[in-house]
Amino acid sequence: MTDREIRHAELAARYLPDELLERFRERAAGYDRANGFFDEDLAELVAQGYLTLFVPTEFGGPGLSLNEVSRLQQRLAGAAPATALAVNMHLMCTGVVTAMVDRGDRSLTWLFGEVMAGEIFAFGISEPANDWVLQGSNTVAEPQADGGYLLTGVKIFTSLSPVWTRLIVHGLDSSGTEPELVYGFVERDAPGITVSDDWDVLGMRASQSRATILRQVPMRAERVARTMPPGRHPDLLTFAITSNFQLLVGAVYAGVARRALELGAAGLKHRMSAKSGTTYAEIPEYRTRIADAYRDYLAVPAQLDAYSRDFDDLVDHGSRWPQLLVSARINASAAARRATETALLCAGGGGFANGSELSRLFRDAAAGLFHPPSADAARPMFAAALLDD
Amino acid sequence: MTDREIRHAELAARYLPDELLERFRERAAGYDRANGFFDEDLAELVAQGYLTLFVPTEFGGPGLSLNEVSRLQQRLAGAAPATALAVNMHLMCTGVVTAMVDRGDRSLTWLFGEVMAGEIFAFGISEPANDWVLQGSNTVAEPQADGGYLLTGVKIFTSLSPVWTRLIVHGLDSSGTEPELVYGFVERDAPGITVSDDWDVLGMRASQSRATILRQVPMRAERVARTMPPGRHPDLLTFAITSNFQLLVGAVYAGVARRALELGAAGLKHRMSAKSGTTYAEIPEYRTRIADAYRDYLAVPAQLDAYSRDFDDLVDHGSRWPQLLVSARINASAAARRATETALLCAGGGGFANGSELSRLFRDAAAGLFHPPSADAARPMFAAALLDD
Amino acid sequence: MTDREIRHAELAARYLPDELLERFRERAAGYDRANGFFDEDLAELVAQGYLTLFVPTEFGGPGLSLNEVSRLQQRLAGAAPATALAVNMHLMCTGVVTAMVDRGDRSLTWLFGEVMAGEIFAFGISEPANDWVLQGSNTVAEPQADGGYLLTGVKIFTSLSPVWTRLIVHGLDSSGTEPELVYGFVERDAPGITVSDDWDVLGMRASQSRATILRQVPMRAERVARTMPPGRHPDLLTFAITSNFQLLVGAVYAGVARRALELGAAGLKHRMSAKSGTTYAEIPEYRTRIADAYRDYLAVPAQLDAYSRDFDDLVDHGSRWPQLLVSARINASAAARRATETALLCAGGGGFANGSELSRLFRDAAAGLFHPPSADAARPMFAAALLDD
Amino acid sequence: MTDREIRHAELAARYLPDELLERFRERAAGYDRANGFFDEDLAELVAQGYLTLFVPTEFGGPGLSLNEVSRLQQRLAGAAPATALAVNMHLMCTGVVTAMVDRGDRSLTWLFGEVMAGEIFAFGISEPANDWVLQGSNTVAEPQADGGYLLTGVKIFTSLSPVWTRLIVHGLDSSGTEPELVYGFVERDAPGITVSDDWDVLGMRASQSRATILRQVPMRAERVARTMPPGRHPDLLTFAITSNFQLLVGAVYAGVARRALELGAAGLKHRMSAKSGTTYAEIPEYRTRIADAYRDYLAVPAQLDAYSRDFDDLVDHGSRWPQLLVSARINASAAARRATETALLCAGGGGFANGSELSRLFRDAAAGLFHPPSADAARPMFAAALLDD
């Protein structure tokens, strides 16, 4: 059996070689300052085949597992968090279909063909004030005679907004006796799609996660993925979305945390202390500070590894799955915030400059507060796990 | 005896009435975006007599105590953190002299006259890589025949850089057999002063705390405040500086924390939940989140109150004073970071917009990591209190 | 004006001299092991006049303030936490009446005479499953023709159970059209009182806080203190109870925290490291550990000082008072738990022995989780402060 | 491929069926109160074949992996923490040899025969003031002509002291030009072994981890496992010890944390609130409390799973291994302390009784502060990982 860590290292060298990461890191500063999209990064990722990572070999892709992609995304996020967060959305869409195939559902394998053909997928799930998230929608889905739907509503935080060509969306069909949630895909060139130009946020700016306004946008019948009742309802599609979303978003923040610690360490090595006559890297109180943050960080990639490998191995955690997945993502984003704060303490005033990579990571890390479900929105699930039968 | 809280409320109404604060708050967004100095705020503060708060009545000022100014600064910081942080520097200089007078040293009372005449004082103590802070200096002080000095060195984080007219500075005179630290004041129009134009930082931007380069800047003999050996050396001037600095910087972050919690609460009242059919202010998990942050916050103004009143009452905490003062400031800045993070969780994605007051407070709060002594630089002092005799 | 700290030191020397504390500390181990009451401590405290601390000079006592008693209780708790926690109950009863006198209500001054005559007061408020605490009661109060009541119910955690002679209790009179809460005092030799012999708990064992069963126990008419509606109802008696209870219970845990840090420091000085060839007191990671705990601790006595002095000075915090008081007590008990944990880390395996003072403090500190309102019971109050109008 | 979780459930049912655990849990209270050893538990574990879990099938055992044993130990610790912690020591000795076999070193396979024959192994590594732990020893090892040694020294925290028949020990041979560490096994009936009768500690009492005094105790030549230089020195034996020790000790505290949360939940379901008219399980603030603790806990078994599976799969983390292993164990023990504290808050005053399982778990969890390396002793390793080359 090949050592997993060797395999990860090989994949890193193949898909995200050091010199590529260095270019990403340098461009990240400019994208952030200009509030621009990561076009050049994307072009290089496409050239690397990065957007096909999840596509199974039988469909022409490299067939990477969620565990493997999670590691790559951690690595990418260490260089360009917003690039990683945004490309995540495309990767998730492909990962979802791979997960379904692995579990015997081949209904969405058409997506692999489109991915191989260069289509870029994005996520149109989040909506204003919809804390049901996957289990409900404020978007109206009007059924059409041919089995398709017309969708009208607003989707927010649509990463990749300048470039996506396919969007996974959901809406609520209230035309029948019982309301039904509809999941499926719409195309960018369909009529009725407007992308907001309002995007000026604290962090993860290059993701350009603008709102998407849908006005009677057609979802073709062959692109309808699922209909299901709103509310809690076990379904392979939504399970696959949750799994890919939580673990890959977690991977991004794990990468941010890791990079912040590296920058904190570099700061300590760089700073000179008049009092001790050494660099700060030799002052015990600072060593202790970064040691504690590093120890806390270590649990994060471990938790991501454990769950992503369970997922890849088709381990059945049953109703515990959402708890596990969400806790991993929440822990990762908390680690990113703590690690960037620690790193600022280590780097000193120089880290506070807007030109420093660290001050950008600090802002990027704050985005981790907002992915669904938020820490508070998830509390009832964790309480119920212990208290409700 | 007048109720202290009534007195604080009267002072708030007199010096920082609500409508003034509202103007400050509105302008704060613009200063931050434009990376500009708070000229209009300053003009209004001057008009209010805010810059004379500490001047004793015998010198024509209102003679406020440190406890009273601390409360006003908390209030000001709740509207305009950078304005509060910068004007702090002027207030400290006056507060230092007041504290010396209260303890029988009237050697610097000339400063009151200058303050009443409209001079603006600032702090030129912090230097690159000088973690001795008050106890050492990398600035060269060359003694002159008339008892004055010529100063050459770099001072960093000089708040109020566009407007200060007087700067408290220190330097090291190594010309004699034993090195001596010199403290005193220089004037803005003295030769040899250059103010850096490099200022682009994450938060507290309107403070315009640019670096100040000193090249043989004359400190006139009558403006020399102290000479003393470098290292630990009990002295009323440096004690007064430490006290005013730690407690008033702490006040700024206490004010930021308080305001963040208000914004978090406003966010919860504003947001609607599809799941609960109410605002988020009625969802227990969010109520609990902000409740915990508020409970944590309460210790901060209490600690500032306890110590500032002890200071005003001339209570002698002896060698424990620095521990008390520094712990209060560190706790305040930690509370600001935690409160802004909590408030972002409460406000949801809207708080992440660069146009939101909260995202600015989040950046402003991060500045609290850097005031001297940092959490790590202070650790030896706290350890020594328990372990060394 | 006399320096407050000098005054505190004088009171410490007068009421709790070092050698007395040392005897308390030695006996504490025995009381804990034998699950016995602190009879000898109590005799010495009585001899010191400690039980009359709050009695105003006009009634023959020393007339100490809440701030002064808070400091003495911190000191006492550092030697014998359970003794301090139990004698607290008596002190509170007297402090409550003093607070009422200070605010113009002399209706309960008879209590001072009893205290001077040697009666010992205790608290009979807590009841099983009564999370209304002061605002409700499961104890039945039957009104009698003479204005007195007969009380039937169970009171729990009645500290001082072996020795109290007077018990402040409350009960609910449901005989009229509207239920009424009755507050007053019963005497130990009244008929119907049974003290449980069930007491075997984790910590604070010497407090002997056994349950008290009341079966038609007479509260004489002249010992009825108040009747009021159940629920939230502003009243000077209950305000005085809350203030004394929260701040003096907080004082006990502040004292435990402080002592734990001393023991942690002593542990570090005692332990030798083969690796460093020094004591642990010279190893930076351990110094940092105890430094952080000490810094955290400092906020606790400061908060107690701020509020107890406000209380003594009749500062009116209005509806904010309960938040302030409860937060101070919760912070103190959290600090005690954290400090004892830190101290165990510093003391190493030796601290784990049942014979070590530290392992006892660790158990005593855990009692702080249970005083009303608990951290969770208090959360709605803190949330309401920000969210409800 | 069999679902791992199904396999874990099967092993749980086979080796630790519910009714067995229930007996362990009931007896745990008695062992703790009487300060007695878990004789009856041990007899049942022996009967279950639990002491042979790690013995490979080729040597007649069931050949369980570290991941599988980790899960069983979590389960056992949930019922009887001290039993789990003590039997851990025997399991580690066998696990160490299994790990060596898996990596090609069959030099200690004689141990399997002894385990199958009923010998009970224990750990004699910890020594007073030896913070080198595995990398040094204060025990004198005198080389004998036949290749054996005579050992003289003191070993502390020797769990299983009443029953062990084989002890893995190390000592320092300073007879040659270079000092050498010696690792090997001694037999209980060898001359010179005294087991202290001093054992009265806060928690994990049934482990009876008494000190072992060695006075020229012979280690037979064929029981010498290794000689190596003191200090950092890569070696399969010490790597296998570290891995088994950290992960299996971590498993014990993970089990304690999990059980504490169950007891906290049971407490909430049991308690009635007069205020809400429901059980506490329906009060949001308490639900939130236990939800947060549960979410924090989830990372702990995940981290143990990730690393134990990597270990079983022979993944090579190189010099990162010790960081990973130690962080997992420290996190597990912290989770146990936090979970027992949270559970006490949930269970209320009833949990404070010495008769409650929870108050015992709270004391047992405190033992987790002391396993080597302690949190502070480990800080340099984590710092070095980031800062040193």
From TrEMBL, chains A, B, C, D:
Full protein name: Acyl-CoA dehydrogenase family protein
Keyword annotations for this protein? Oxidoreductase
Q: Which residues form the Acyl-CoA dehydrogenase/oxidase N-terminal domain?
A: 22-94
One Pfam short name: Acyl-CoA_dh_N
Instruction: Give the matching InterPro entries.
Output: Acyl-CoA_DH_C, Acyl-CoA_Oxase/DH_mid-dom_sf, AcylCo_DH-like_C, AcylCoA_DH/ox_N, AcylCoA_DH/ox_N_sf, AcylCoA_DH/oxidase_NM_dom_sf
Indicate yes or no for the key word Acyltransferase.
no
PANTHER family reported in the protein's UniProt record: ACYL-COA DEHYDROGENASE, ACYL-COA DEHYDROGENASE YDBM-RELATED
- Outline the extent of the Acyl-CoA dehydrogenase C-terminal domain: 248-371
What's the source species for this entry?
Answer: Microbacterium kribbense
